[in-house]
Design goal:
353 residues, seven-stranded mixed beta sheet, six-stranded mixed beta sheet, 9 helices, binds flavin-adenine dinucleotide
């Protein structure tokens, strides 16, 4: 019935589905949620993500996004502000809805409110399945010490004036960090990564965020602890298999690293762009060598970037190292340049299907 079924309509799934449809495939895109839907995310797209979307002709999905010019990092009572060469903030309700709409405009059939698992009978109706179902999809195994994610959106009229649009605020603490950024409608997106034991000891995700903001001395929005926080499973995870006969795994489902550097959506769209030509060949005729090709391509597109994020997340585990880094960045902002440049570097893919 279809040439490909894509499970999950986040950035990885929608972009892959659209690319396949643009190349003449009949594609079914399914998601268990109804759209627009929110998602725990820092909502910041870096230069690499923006360039990939532009290259794919998707720049209009970023209309209304808030341009980002700075990141302010707090550790204990210290803070350092760094300039960002590129970046925008946009809510996941808006971004993901627009990406789905772009896929539908390219001919993709979209079915929201549809949960599909790997053994669903529906999958018998296509020779190729793309698993893009995020952290809970795939067979990626969480690392035992991994932090968990948490997030909430605060109404525009409740945001303290301290948090200006165009700046990402990252409060780091002993047991996690909290990122805050204003999105297109003035709301404050708050996304965090915490040690699970810390959340348990303070009595909830909201209280954990309050504790970390208090550690750096930044304003705590009224009632923050009591908002409807959403949590995620363990964040840092590695995938055992990125492909098998008739199936490819992409985006967070293919493995993820803690979100401090705000790279997840760049990995999702860059790897979706890279997967499309391989999946297209699989639709035409399956060849077992495509499994290895996807593993190699995926490593080339996101492998090095994920290694940088692993190093950053290790530094963040040590309060002394974090504080020292923030002090050094404050004195010598130039020190951040290699990491910032690396994270904003475009993907090696560089071209569409
Ligand atoms: C705290 C936190 C902060 C972050 N901050 C940033 C940031 O600032 N910048 C950035 O670039 N990245 C950030 N990320 C990472 C980013 O959110 C993800 O990397 C990105 O969303 C991955 O896209 P995806 O398409 O792979 O998965 P997702 O966006 O998670 O989409 C997966 C989709 O699959 C659907 N689904 C799941 N299971 C099924 C099923 N069985 N059947 C049908 N549908 C299913 C879900 O409903 C969902 O819509 C952050 C993540 C966290 C946790």
């Amino acid at each position: 019935m279809w040439d490909a079924i894509v499970i999950g309509a986040g950035p990885a799934g929608s972009v892959t589905a659209r690319e396949l449809a643009r190349n003449g495939c009949r594609v079914l895109l399914v998601d268990k949620a109804s759209f627009p839907r929110s998602k725990v995310c820092g909502c910041c797209l870096n230069g690499a993500a923006i360039r990939t979307l532009r290259r794919l002709g998707l720049e209009e999905v970023l209309e209304d996004a808030v341009p980002l010019s700075q990141v302010t990092i707090g550790a204990k009572s210290r803070k350092a502000s760094l300039n960002l060469p590129a970046g925008v903030a946009i809510s996941r309700e808006l971004l993901d809805l627009r990406l789905v709409e772009a896929a539908v405009s390219a001919g993709v059939e979209f079915r929201p409110d549809t949960t599909v698992n790997r053994d669903s009978l529906l999958l018998k109706h296509a020779p190729v399945v793309i698993l893009a179902s995020g952290l809970t999809g795939g067979d990626a195994v969480p690392e035992p010490t991994s932090r968990i994610g948490a997030g909430v959106l605060l109404k525009a009229d409740a945001v303290p004036g301290f948090y200006s649009p165009g700046t990402i605020y990252m409060a780091t603490g002993r047991s996690g960090y909290v990122g805050l950024v204003r999105v297109e409608d003035g709301r404050l997106d708050i996304a965090a990564a915490f040690d699970a034991s810390f959340v348990k000891s303070v009595g909830g995700l909201g209280r954990a965020a309050v504790a970390i903001l208090a550690e750096v001395g930044w304003p705590i929005p009224h009632g923050l602890a009591d908002l409807a926080w959403k949590g995620t499973p363990a964040l840092t995870r590695r995938s055992l298999r990125l492909a098998e006969r008739g199936l490819f795994v992409v985006g967070d489902a293919a493995g993820y690293v803690e979100p401090f550097t705000g790279e997840g959506m760049a990995w999702a769209v860059m790897s979706a762009e890279a997967l499309a030509p391989i999946a297209l060949r699989a639709v035409r005729e399956w060849d077992d060598r495509l499994i290895h090709e996807w593993e190699q391509t995926h490593a080339g597109v996101v492998g090095r970037r994920q290694r940088v994020c692993r190093i950053v997340s290790r530094v963040l585990r040590s309060p002394r190292l974090t504080s020292l880094t923030v002090r050094s960045l404050r004195l010598f902002p130039i020190l951040s340049r290699p990491v910032v440049a690396m994270l904003n570097r475009p993907s090696p893919q560089g071209s569409s299907v």
